[in-house]
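Q: What residues go here?
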């Protein structure tokens, strides 16, 4: 039976299974949604379920025509996810609980649909991991080096403009102001956002694994450079036009503007990679020997 036929015949059972999963994870999902709303570092997370759902909806016809081949490995994954949820509850570890929800979805799809369905839905499922906030200890290990790197790069940029500047740790001193690069200015928000955008762009626009990896990896330096440019601009505004111009609305707006410009850079990179691929593939096909010659060579 195809997926569509199975759903029609087992709609009540599937609905009960979905309600059971939602009831089990209701506190976890509520806490996750609260973090998306309150923590600016993960505000992009509220869009991830919709993006993932769109990718699944977009291939609904191909999925509905597939034959279900249940795989017991999915049951193992689902049980492991439930055990992870229990362990997370006992240890008050939110990260484990949230990860277990995505693993439960993977286990259910693998158990009910089999490997074919799982492969078709692999990217949308893996994308769900990007909506889960990192543990605080890991986030700090990433944020603090970013603060130092951003402040160093901003200091060098200001010096290139022949403006006297001194850096002490993550604090930038100029003639009229001293600006501390705090966690909120480390660039971690734009980094998470650009990594997610890079993943989606790479999946949608690139067909080769190497090109996809390049797009995703390039999101990191682009985010760091963009944040350093923002810090440089903020310092110059505060130095020459007053601190009031570098704070408030302009400070928030510059953050969105930098993310937008970084996205434009990613799109330019995607366009360049597309041109290279269009140039390289026909050239490689033209230089390849004809099929008959290949067969003749194999016979020899």
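A:
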């Amino acid at each position: 039976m195809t997926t569509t036929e199975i759903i029609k015949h087992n709609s009540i059972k599937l609905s009960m299974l979905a309600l059971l999963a939602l009831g089990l994870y209701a506190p976890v999902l509520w806490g996750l949604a609260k973090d998306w709303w309150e923590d600016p570092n993960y505000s992009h997370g509220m869009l991830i379920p919709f993006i993932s759902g769109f990718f699944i909806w977009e291939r609904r016809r191909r999925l509905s025509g597939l034959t279900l081949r249940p795989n017991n490995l999915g049951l193992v994954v689902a049980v492991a996810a439930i055990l992870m949820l229990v362990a997370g509850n006992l240890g008050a570890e939110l990260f484990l609980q949230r990860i277990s929800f995505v693993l439960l979805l993977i286990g259910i799809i693998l158990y009910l649909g089999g490997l074919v369905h799982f492969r078709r839905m692999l990217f949308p499922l893996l994308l769900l991991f990007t909506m889960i906030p990192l543990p605080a200890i890991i986030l700090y290990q990433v944020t603090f080096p970013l603060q130092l790197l951003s402040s160093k790069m901003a200091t060098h940029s200001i010096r290139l403009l022949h403006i006297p500047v001194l850096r002490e740790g993550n604090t930038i001193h100029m003639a009229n102001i001293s600006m501390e690069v705090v966690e909120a200015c480390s660039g971690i928000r734009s980094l998470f956002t650009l990594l997610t955008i890079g993943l989606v762009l790479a999946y949608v626009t690139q067909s080769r694994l190497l090109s996809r990896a390049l797009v995703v990896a390039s999101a990191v330096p682009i985010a760091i450079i963009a944040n350093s440019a923002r810090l440089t601009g903020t310092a110059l505004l505060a130095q020459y036009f007053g601190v009031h111009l570098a704070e408030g609305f302009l400070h928030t707006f510059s953050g969105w503007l930098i993310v937008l410009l970084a996205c434009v850079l990613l799109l330019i990179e995607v366009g360049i990679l597309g041109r290279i691929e269009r140039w390289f593939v026909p050239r490689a096909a033209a230089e390849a020997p004809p099929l008959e010659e290949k067969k003749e060579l194999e016979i020899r």
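A: Context that may help when evaluating the design: Residues 3-130 form one domain. The two ends are 48 Å apart (CA to CA).
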